[in-house]
Amino acid sequence: MDELVEHWTVLDGELGLVAGKRGGTRLGFALLLKYYTRHGRFPRGRAEFPDEVVEFVARQMKVPAAEFDSYQWTGSTIEYHRAQIREHLGFRVCSVQDAEKLTAWLAANVAHAERNADRVREELLKRCREEFIEPPAPDRIKRMVRSALYTAEETWFARIAARLTVDVRAQSLLWWRRPGMTRTRTTLMGSRCWPWSRRCRATSAWSRCCGRSAS
Q1: How many other CB atoms sit within 10 Å of the CB of residue 81?
Q2: Is 185 helix (H, G, I), strand (E, B) or coil?
């Protein structure tokens, strides 16, 4: 009950948004509003609302809980409701420019140290909420996380290459060009095993390739 009261009570400042709506539309709007306020995104369907939540909000709206089943999850009505809620809370849809800025921020501030994709995703969602940006679709988030991880790794290797002297680079090139050595990708250094990283250590190439180089 404490959680219901804290997160699902329609406040006085929100009642004006609900005014004029009737039946399942009224209840559906109120549930979308409270869900977005709590999670910073819209629900994907009825399944994201526990029955006790629907009943709690329905009592406040003076609408039978069963009316929520008639709420339409596609069409002009829900799109209008989403626009109202975004405007009320100060959020905006994630644009192409927003996505680019978020990805660059992830690469520079998170992915350079954190290589776990799930934790990088969590930081992305947190950043979206801080910037009042509605999170993109899951597939788009996945692409942004992958891009940030890739960019951070490329930046890291470029910084290492920039610190090497000309002699060290030349010796590295000669060593990597030895017959029988595994080479899968080229860089500013001339060539390197794609990863001097987790992916490489998980293969047998590590012992004769990066492992030998590290020693």
Answers
A1: 21
A2: strand
Give the gyration radius of the chain's Cα atoms: 26
Residue 135: both structure tokens together: 């999170």
Separation of alpha carbons 99 and 103, rounded Å = 6
Q: pLDDT by residue (tens digit) across 115-163?
A: 999 999 999 999 999 999 999 999 999 999 999 999 998 888 888 778 8
Rounded distance between C-alpha atoms, residue 196 and residue 158, angstroms: 13
Q: 92 — phi, psi (to 5°)?
A: -140, 160
Q: How far apart are CA 178 and CA 173, in angstroms?
A: 9
Phi and psi at 192, nearest 5°, equal -155, 155
Q: Whole-model pTM? A: 0.68
Q: Is 68 helix (H, G, I), strand (E, B) or coil?
A: helix
Q: How far apart are CA 134 and CA 89, in angstroms?
A: 11
At 10, the amino acid letter reads: V
